[in-house]
Design goal:
single chain; alpha/beta; Methyltransferase, Methionine Synthase (B12-binding Domains), Chain A, domain 1; Rossmann fold; elongated
Length: about 220
């Protein structure tokens, strides 16, 4: 058995049993080996969740097991977030972190006063679906554009969805600096992130996995 076959088998088993850390580790290894994200999704993750659904229908699995398995798949969904350079306010950002984690995202919190190069390094390392910039001061809002330019220079701009927010930020300003979306509060940021993963299903294995997981759970529960 090749290493790729071992990874697929491991992803199937660990997803089935709700072992999120193991799923995350194997997913990262698979991507590092150059495996196609769609191969990971449709030959390991989705088949595993379908098996969860079958076991639920037979009475071998119950709702908690289904939710645990779905949560294990969500570990592939990443969200990098931080307060921009020059700004030390973090209440809004911290609320976003709490709500995003509650929604099943793996959040990489870069803290406050985060320079562009730190965002770039985090995107390179974690390969998130979304990167969020937070600013509480009008004087630090221009860092949104600086961060986007840094990601563009690093060849990463088209690989992530950029979301911005903060007390003085507006939708118009978000569009002006080239962000993909704007959220006025933590609740909206989380809702938009959850909607986004479905919209980006063709470009993100984690996104499509979550969408399929939720659909499978809803479908199976309706049958029950």
């Amino acid at each position: 058995m090749s290493r790729e076959e071992e990874i697929r088998a491991g992803l199937f088993d660990h997803t089935l049993n709700g072992h999120a850390p193991e799923v995350k580790t194997l997913t990262e290894e698979a991507l590092a080996l150059g495996m196609d994200p769609m191969d990971i999704l449709f030959k390991a993750l989705i088949p595993s969740l379908e098996e969860v659904g079958r076991r639920f229908e037979k009475g071998d699995f119950f709702v908690p097991e289904m939710l645990i398995a779905a949560r294990a798949m969500q570990c592939a969904l990443g969200y990098v977030i931080g307060t921009v350079k020059g700004d030390i306010h973090d209440i809004g950002k911290n609320l976003c972190v709490i709500m995003l984690e509650g929604a099943g995202f793996e959040v990489f919190d870069l803290g406050v006063n985060t320079p562009p190069e730190k965002f770039v390094a985090a995107v390179e390392e974690h390969k998130p679906d979304v990167v969020g910039f937070s600013a509480f001061l009008t004087t630090t809002m221009p860092m949104f554009k600086a961060n986007i330019e840094a990601l563009t220079k690093a060849g990463l701009r088209d690989k992530v969805h950029i979301a911005v927010g903060g007390a003085p930020v507006t939708l118009e300003y978000a569009k002006h600096v080239g962000a993909d979306s704007y959220a006025p509060d933590a609740s909206m940021a989380t809702r938009m992130a959850k909607e986004l993963v479905g919209d980006r299903s063709q470009s993100s294995s984690g996104a499509q996995a979550l969408e399929q997981a939720v659909m499978k759970i809803d479908e199976t529960l309706r049958k029950g």
